[in-house]
Design a protein that fits this description.
Layout: H1 7-16, H2 32-42, E1 54-59, H3 62-89, H4 95-110, E2 116-122, H5 132-140, H6 143-155, E3 158-160, H7 170-177, E4 184-185, E5 189-193
Antiparallel strand pairs: 1-2, 2-4, 2-5, 3-5
Bound molecules: flavin mononucleotide.
Length: about 220
């Protein structure tokens, strides 16, 4: 039977949706309609019990973006210093490590100028006292939709980056955004049209190396 989709397109979408930082077009506005369309698509993601317990907060007010960017940078500074020390300690000087540091630093510097910052939220307060199963069910009912949102953006020529650093100061971000204390912020996604034409697949281990059959550590042929 023929595949129901054009696999060259769907596989390309799934393998080349990258974290976009340096190629975010800071000059081109992102219409609300496009973001709403992508959120509409994202809300088709699976959820435990079929309850869609999310809200999506789009931030494009310049002062509010600046406030979020300030929180992000406050968390980024000690994070990247620790990363650089760790990289030096093991003598990692490869281009890909340098690229991640450069592009992450770029994003931290320009965050306030990215046209839209999107914060997906869960309508409950996550608790460290929850069992691993409850935590998995809770996050598992929210995060697939966030990735769907990124895929929908990419299909339309927009790039995004999953970031979590501002969550070090989640309470301050909540205050800035009037998010009630009963809600958990999940991530902060800078969203913009991307510059350039295309993206490549990332470097990953082959599936056989990370898959077992029937028993832990039993390889699959
Ligand atoms: C849970 C999570 C948190 C992340 N947090 C950040 C972040 O705070 N800042 C950032 O620049 N990138 C962040 N990233 C992006 C990763 O650095 C990126 O996915 C990784 O380097 C692989 O690159 P790729 O997505 O292009 O394959 C995060 C990604 C995930 C999944």
């Amino acid at each position: 039977m023929a595949a129901p989709f054009d696999l060259s397109q769907t596989d390309k979408l799934l393998t080349t949706t990258r974290t976009v930082r340096k190629r975010l077009d800071l000059t081109r506005p992102v219409p609300h309609a496009v973001l709403l369309e992508c959120i509409e698509i994202a809300t088709q993601a699976p959820t435990g019990g079929n309850v869609q317990q999310w809200r999506w907060l789009i931030v494009d007010d310049p002062d509010t973006k600046q406030g979020l960017a300030d929180l992000y940078r406050r968390a980024y500074a000690p994070y990247i210093e620790a990363q650089k020390r760790a990289v030096e300690a093991v003598g990692r000087t490869d281009a890909s490590t340098r690229n991640i540091i450069d592009s992450s630093t770029h994003l931290a510097e320009v965050l306030a100028d990215v046209p839209a910052l999107v914060i997906p939220c869960g309508l409950d307060r996550v608790s460290a006292a929850w069992s691993p199963g409850r935590l998995a069910g809770w996050f598992g009912s929210l995060l697939p939709a966030v990735w769907s949102f990124q895929l929908a953006l990419r299909s339309r020529g927009l790039g995004s980056a999953w970031t979590t650093l501002h969550l070090e100061f989640e309470e301050e971000a909540a205050e800035l955004l009037a998010i009630p204390p009963t809600v958990t912020q999940l991530a902060l996604l800078p969203v913009a049209y991307y510059t350039g034409d295309d993206f490549k697949a990332g470097s990953r281990k082959p599936a056989q190396n990370v898959t077992y059959l029937n028993r832990w550590k039993q390889p699959i042929a």
